[in-house]
Each structure stands twice: as structure tokens, then as C-alpha cells.
Specification:
Elements lengths: L4 E2 L7 E2 L6 H6 L14 H7 L3 H13 L3 H6 L16
Antiparallel strand pairs: 1-2
Helix pairs in contact: 2-3
Length: 89
């Protein structure tokens, strides 16, 4: 059986993946403007993998740092944004 992880905050929810803990998503160090060699941003990768808590966390961090538009406008090497990549909608 896969190992289960439990949040230690105000709620006791279990997750198959410790990175699904919403507290970690919004408080951990995260470079919201990061892109790999193909131009895939953190937001694109999270959306493509259907990691909704990560998408939400990235958008919250982008908004709180006044970089939401910049984050949403990042394009990969094919010229696509996170909203334009097939499979992310």
C-alpha cells in the first residue's frame, strides 16, 4: 500500500503525496516564474499533472506578489501559455 501522509495543521486530512498538503503549497519556497529548458513553467507543469492545489498555490503566490499577469503570460518554446496547452483545461 502507498504510504499516507497526514497534515499537522488545523485539519487532519491524509494525502497519498505529501506535496498535496495545501499548507506546503502556499508556504514553501516556490519560484512561480521558473521555466525548464522547454519553457514549461511551474504553473504549466502543475496544470498538466492535474495538481489543482499546486495550481491554486501558484496563482495565490503570483497574485500576492503582484506577478499574476506575468505568471499567466509565460510561454513555452511552442509559444503557448498555461491556458493554451492541450490537456490543461
Amino acid at each position: 500500500f502507498p504510504k499516507r501522509y497526514t497534515m499537522s495543521l488545523d485539519t487532519q486530512k491524509s494525502f497519498d503525496d505529501p506535496f498535496d498538503d495545501p499548507a506546503l503549497v502556499t508556504t514553501a519556497f516556490l519560484d512561480i516564474m521558473w521555466q525548464d529548458e522547454q519553457g514549461v513553467s511551474a504553473l504549466m507543469a502543475a496544470a498538466k499533472d492535474n495538481r489543482l492545489l499546486h495550481v491554486r498555490g501558484i496563482l495565490i503566490l503570483a497574485q500576492s506578489s503582484s506577478r499574476l499577469k506575468q505568471c499567466m503570460d509565460l510561454r513555452n518554446n511552442h509559444g503557448l501559455t498555461a491556458l493554451e496547452i492541450p490537456g490543461t483545461r
